[in-house]
Amino acid sequence: MFTLVQVLCEDSFHAFLREIMHYLPWAWTYFYSYIAIACLVLMNLVTAIIVEHAMETSRGDHEQQLRDKITREEKEVKQLKHLFDVMDTDGSGTLCWEEFQESFQHPEVGKM
Hints:
Blueprint: H1 2-8, H2 14-23, H3 27-87, H4 97-103, H5 107-111
């Protein structure tokens, strides 16, 4: 196992590779294939971690935008309800044409 880690880290593995090649001349293909595959796997793993983190961050940003939108809409609904309450002078829950026209003279309606 130590030999494979040494090969993967390219930590002077040529010394024992030459010794092995005296007995098995094709042994270099095994070690170089191992390096290629292991590096590919490690790079894919690192890439997957980075992409996963980016996706989580993006998902969090999207959820925050939705919460902000809901909060903004709730605030606007409260403002509209308050505006309606100010415009509804007789408290009937409905606006007649006269109330609507008179509301433009009200200073609080002009601010909104």
